[in-house]
DNA sequence: GCATGAACAGATTGTTCATTA
DNA sequence: TAATGAACAATCTGTTCATGC
């Protein structure tokens, strides 16, 4: 097992949550997460967001649709990729969340111990 | 900056502490840390221990001496490598600890937030 | 600048292998 | 088995580049 939780897994949790709340395309979620994590001094990199989304699709949790941003033609023709849960995507996601929670708790245990041991 | 704290940096903290307490060779420290982290389900890999020690030497914080284990000849001729702080090693270590603390706190902030956001 | 994606390079790490006593 | 070290392979990640609107 890896020492620490992977950034990819960490981001997947947040992306699943954002898709669940119907805020659903890559660039927007990236910007949202950037804002959300600014206080923690963490800037999620663009490449990881897209890689995480692609993996969630490959894993059969999400699927993609394409849409023209704005909807009204003549206004904005930018094409965006929206994400939605597949039929059994929610169950799969729940399973995945469970796995990540185990890993997250393990990491917190390790890091909290280090914090106590060296900087208490 | 990397997403999470590196295992190497994490281990260096513990190795510096063990050397400070005069428990000082690789294999022994490895076994000690294995025992210490058993409850957290973390098994520090042998290779990382040695790599971390080598780096601490390269960074001028520690230096090495060699010794025959047991001391008494005829009993055990296994050669072991002991580690000690250099002249200004303690100061350097203190500086390093400070840096790692910053990183550690950043990681804890991120992971605690995730824990709250998804599993509260 | 918004939006998506790929490519490339580097660092970290886990496993295995080698050596000696 | 204890002890140290190196080699190898895989993964992850950060940066940069490419494309289109």
UniProtKB/TrEMBL annotation, chains A, B:
Pfam families, alphabetized: RTP (PF02334)
Highest taxon listed in the record's lineage: Bacteria
Gene3D superfamilies to which the protein is assigned, alphabetical: Winged helix-like DNA-binding domain superfamily/Winged helix DNA-binding domain
Database matches in InterPro entries: RTP (IPR003432), WH-like_DNA-bd_sf (IPR036388), WH_DNA-bd_sf (IPR036390)
The protein's name: Replication termination protein
Taxonomic path: Bacteria, Bacillati, Bacillota, Bacilli, Bacillales
Gene name, Swiss-Prot/TrEMBL: rtp
């Amino acid at each position: 097992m890896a020492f620490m939780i992977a950034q990819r897994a960490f981001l997947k949790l947040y992306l699943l949550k954002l898709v669940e709340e119907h805020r659903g395309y890559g660039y927007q979620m990236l910007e949202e997460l950037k804002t959300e994590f600014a206080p923690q001094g963490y800037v999620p990199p663009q490449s990881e967001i897209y890689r995480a989304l692609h993996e969630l699709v490959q894993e059969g949790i999400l699927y993609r649709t394409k849409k023209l941003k704005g909807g009204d033609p003549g206004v904005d023709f930018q094409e965006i990729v929206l994400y939605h849960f597949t039929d059994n995507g929610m169950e799969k996601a729940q399973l995945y969340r469970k796995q990540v929670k185990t890993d997250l708790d393990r990491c917190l245990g390790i890091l909290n111990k280090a914090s106590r041991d060296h900087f208490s």
